[in-house]
Amino acid sequence: MPCQIKTLTVLGTGVLGSQIAYQAAFHGFAVTAYDVDGVALEKARARLARLVGIYRAADVGGAGESKAEAALDKLRLTANLGDAVADADLVIEAVPELLEVKRDVYRMLAELSPAKTIFATNSSTLLPSDLKDSTGRPDRFLAIHYANNIWAQNIAEVMGTAETDPAVFDAVVEFARNSGLEPIEIRKEKAGYVLNSLLVPLLNAAAGLLMQGVATPETIDKTWRIATGAPSGPFQIYDVVGLGTAYNIAASSPDAGSQAFARYLKDNYIDQGKLGVATGEGFYTY
Predict the structure, then answer these.
(1) What are φ and ψ of residue 183, in 5° steps?
(2) What is the pLDDT of residues 97-141, one digit of tens each?
(3) Labelling 54: which of 14, 111, 147, 200 has CA 20 to 30 A away?
């Protein structure tokens, strides 16, 4: 079956789902963004409007020449799942990180989508093999994982299962490239992909140094930036990721050090509403 991707549907219009949809529309794809109801779609419209301003300010790919606004003409919103996927070449699922929720979504997609449609999960924590049996088409299913701030941190990690058709894998790699991203081809399933396999140990090491009283967040970040040339240190990265996310991950780990870091985040930041860049204050003030 041909694997050329021209039409995209994104399921879930949260922070990253909206970015995925807008980035593809910005690069000329016909995009449909789906969410569960009108309230969610109104929030999506606000996020998309903010992205227009962000792309213009950064002049992403000539966005200052009305290209940023024109992207919205390539993007439609709907709360009807059947309508959303009726002509989709590719569906990217960006729904909450709950295994059974995602499995239920794929069971519905299997019934509603044309045979041509490729399914892809944007899950950060679940392997595609956790989900493939729910799709009804494991040969046309894989993962495509994006970093936040997609217009600048423009990688797309593509990872299939042993059952993914190589032609499908290649088509999604080409889609990523054509939507302004640098495809990262992962040839074997790996929890954390490449990015988080590298990033998470760094963040955990930084949290350990802080909790052991070795150095302050500012000192740890300064050391990393100066010694490696990196633009951001680990606690600056925590602020971008969001301290709520950092707390949830740490709190769910049985490791004593992770539990201590979770308590530290809750007492000093979460309970004060300091969640990082999104709220204007975390380890740093923005």
Answers:
(1) -70, 135
(2) 889 999 999 999 999 999 999 999 999 889 999 999 999 999 999
(3) 200
